[in-house]
Design a protein that fits this description.
Number of domains: 1
CATH architecture: 4-Layer Sandwich
Strand content: 15-25%
Strand order of the largest sheet: 8-7-9-16-11
Structural class: alpha+beta
Number of helices: 10
Largest sheet: 5 strands, antiparallel
Length: 379
């Protein structure tokens, strides 16, 4: 079983990801992880901290000569902007953050809550997810995250070609699949900043190359859609998750929701085993299991809660009305959210892959994978 945890505070010395249950024999490309960390820091609308930090991963354990050993892996991302001990307490809690609830729950300072609750923690999750993506690549599985809405503006993809989508995202400052709309979106973000406000949006992740049978129907807490929804909802500021048609499926009759099943004998050698669907409203999951179609996950991110024109709050000492404290923040971090959600989803897929084809090494997993597909084709 693959498990992982993170540790560290926003302005602490380091962010740590600890991964247990990762197979041996994977040769790690650290630069690919650093690329994901850099993408997480990018995107139009980010704050000044991203100009200070240059996130890079360092492996502390679990590898030898850049190859995994099968033992626990410790990864760290060092904070250059380390000043936790010098920061002052926050006297007025910010609406939309965990400041008030956390300080009451733990009977502690607001500062201690906000530094851990910060989305800076996701640097460790992105590093872990980027490692998981290298495992998935051994089985030709690919996760791709991108922005499909910013505030009230929707951005559709001009193509269904996966490689072209990757290239389009790489050229968009907002990590959308249509870079031609970047200027329009940047103007929207600029105006929002001028108004002292912030923006959220919706990101989508598509995972291709998935086999049948990741996840299970046998226990409610092991269904893959539930595990993915849990992981994605646990990303800071995510307020909604849907898979496939999602909420729209509640508004349509069944004949317009469920995906017909077809068979094409010429496609039996790929991950679909020849089973084809003219639509993918299920988003690649049925009864908690992958069905050979691309996984499609969407996540709704609320606007940044720290505003340049702060909302009403109180002074915690006097309990008198005031305005919320202000901490350095972004205007729109939806691009970063697409990177985070992509890598969180990749980690959940890697967990399910190890559950299904588990072994102590990559070589053993590949042997299990081949045997399973051979047996499935004979069904």
């Amino acid at each position: 079983m693959l498990r992982y945890w993170t540790a560290g505070e926003s302005h602490g010395k380091t962010m740590i990801a600890l991964i247990d249950g990762f197979p041996s024999g994977l040769e790690i490309d650290e630069e690919k992880i650093n690329v994901e960390l850099a993408r997480r820091q990018g995107g139009y609308g980010r704050g000044k901290r991203q100009q200070i930090e240059t996130d890079r991963v360092e492996f502390l354990s679990g590898t030898w000569k850049q190859t995994t050993l099968g033992s626990p892996i410790a990864m760290q991302v060092i904070n250059r902007d380390y000043k936790l001990e010098r920061l002052k307490e926050l006297p007025r809690p910010r609406p939309g953050h965990g400041d008030l609830s956390g300080s009451i729950k733990y009977l502690s300072s607001v500062r201690g809550i906000l530094e851990r609750a910060s989305a800076r923690e996701t640097a460790a999750r992105v590093a872990a997810g980027a490692l998981a993506q290298q495992l998935l690549a051994q089985f030709n599985i690919r996760a791709l995250g991108y922005v499909i809405e910013i505030g009230k503006i929707k951005i559709e993809s001009p193509t269904d070609n996966v490689q072209q989508r990757i290239e389009n995202r790489a050229t968009s400052e907002l990590y959308t699949l249509d870079p031609r709309r970047d200027d329009e979106l940047k103007s929207y973000i600029d105006q929002t900043q001028a108004d002292g406000d912030t923006l959220g949006g919706i990101v989508e992740v598509t995972v291709t190359g998935l086999p049948f049978g990741l996840g299970t129907h046998t226990q409610w807490d092991q269904k893959l859609d539930g595990r993915i929804a849990h992981a994605v909802m646990a990303v800071q500021a995510i307020k909604g998750v849907e898979i496939g048609l999602g909420f729209e499926s509640a508004r349509l009759p069944g004949s317009q929701v469920h995906d017909p099943i077809q068979f094409d004998a010429s496609q039996t050698d790929d991950n679909t085993l020849g089973y084809q669907r003219p639509s993918n409203n299920a988003g690649g999951l049925e009864a908690g299991m992958t069905n050979g179609q691309p996984l499609v996950v969407r996540a709704a991110k609320k606007p940044i809660a720290t505003l340049q024109k702060p909302l009403e709050s109180i002074d915690l000492q006097s309990k008198q009305p005031s305005t919320a404290s202000y901490e350095r923040s972004d205007v729109c971090a939806i691009s970063a959210a697409s990177v985070i959600v992509e890598n969180v989803v990749a980690m959940e897929i890697a967990k399910a892959l190890i559950d299904k084809f588990g072994g102590d090494s990559i070589a053993e997993m590949k042997a299990h994978w081949s045997t399973y597909l051979d047996l499935a084709r004979q069904k």
